[in-house]
């Protein structure tokens, strides 16, 4: 099925998210929609999927104009969409999620035909090598497996066009490779795939056609043979450096000491961090590498005090942090960029300016005599929005209305507004485009060069190599080894898979 968008325009008040966009997707091809965070990619696909009404333009399928008043119409026409934030019910089984909204019944009393859904799941799982158990509860599945369930949902409704919105934003490198292979299989089976992304390596790996959107307009098309630098320049409208000029670190004395720390899940009894010892010096970046789920997140949260330690000590400038409140730890000079900005980094229902003072609101000059000073808060927000290039219509806009990348910039702006001794950043550029990644990396290097001790937790090896002065590798809650940033990728990958140290990995 050939899909065509002509002159699609979508406005939100005075803001034009899509400005007369034309797009043609041929059957059996992978069409990458490339652009910065907030460029209008997801908005365009939400119009196509019936979630938004276009203010102008038309949608054609096989040269016939169609109108969708909701996602049900789009799905009935053969369009499926896997959203960046999955639309699954965690306590339902895979089969129940697949049939939800598309229920089949059987027998005279019209009971739900879960067996038919199970059969469909098995059929699609076997066909594409998904390895999904139809009776598994979604909440027990990995993120990568949940994404495959979303794809099965779409394919079970005979989708001829499948939209994947930032599909690798929360995947490990291994899961990303598996997904890209699935995308190729879908194309080879005749399905048209629209891949919304900002990750240049993935685009070059699978795309047949690339359309670049910048600030709501199509600014060009490119072939997959185009260099990453050429694609990045089209995305952001300027030359972008694909490498970080971090210079040489000049580390001082240890600022943060983690001594024999163990973190245990109090409900399940599972040990997430197992007798870990690390130290981070002033003016250096320690990157903690590992496949997600090996204790890195819990270690970072324990340093701030979000999780209790079952054993060991965390010491900042000679002061033991254990038993202190999160607020006390923040006041002691810890900046914290959480792994999940949506859940833990921002309050979506608060304005941008209020999110920028979440840890500053009760002190001068942000408040006086117990009352927030709205004029100073607004001035502060306007300065930070400009400094961090936060794309928003106003500092009074709800933070939930911003793209993911711009929400991340709000988090960084808030945390870096304070005088820090330690900066902890978990997955700091997850879901960000190349321009935003370049900006975030520069700011992290600047903090290091100011003498801040920096801990980066990242499952992206490119990011680890770009920023690290030293690399600690974690596997099953333990530190496998601490290595130099010139350790080769294969060796580091084997260590992330559990090889104990450089000698065994080699």
CATH class value of the largest domain: Alpha Beta
Q: Whole-number radius of gyration?
A: 24 Å
Q: Shape, please?
A: globular
Average pLDDT figure? 89
Amino- and carboxy-terminal Cα gap: 50 Å
CATH architecture assignment of the largest domain: 3-Layer(aba) Sandwich
Strand order of the largest sheet: 6-9-10-3-11-12
Number of helices: 18
CATH superfamily annotation of the largest domain? P-loop containing nucleotide triphosphate hydrolases
Write down the domain tally: 3
Strand content: 25-35%
Number of strands: 24
Organism: Demequina muriae
Keywords: ATP-binding, Nucleotide-binding
Protein name: ABC transporter ATP-binding protein
GO molecular function, one term: ATP binding
How would you describe this protein?
Keywords: ATP-binding, Nucleotide-binding. It holds the Pfam family ABC_tran. This protein is an alpha/beta fold. It folds into three domains: 234 residues, P-loop containing nucleotide triphosphate hydrolases (Rossmann fold), CATH 3.40.50; 167 residues, Rossmann fold; 61 residues, no CATH class. 33% of the residues lie in helices and 26% in strands. It is built from 18 helices and 24 strands. Strands 6-9-10-3-11-12 form a six-stranded mixed β-sheet, sandwiched between helices. A six-stranded mixed β-sheet has the order 18-21-22-15-23-24, with helices on both faces. The chain has a four-stranded antiparallel β-sheet with strand order 2-1-4-5, with helices on one face. Strand 19 and strand 20 form a beta hairpin. It starts with a strand and ends with a helix. The mean pLDDT is 89.
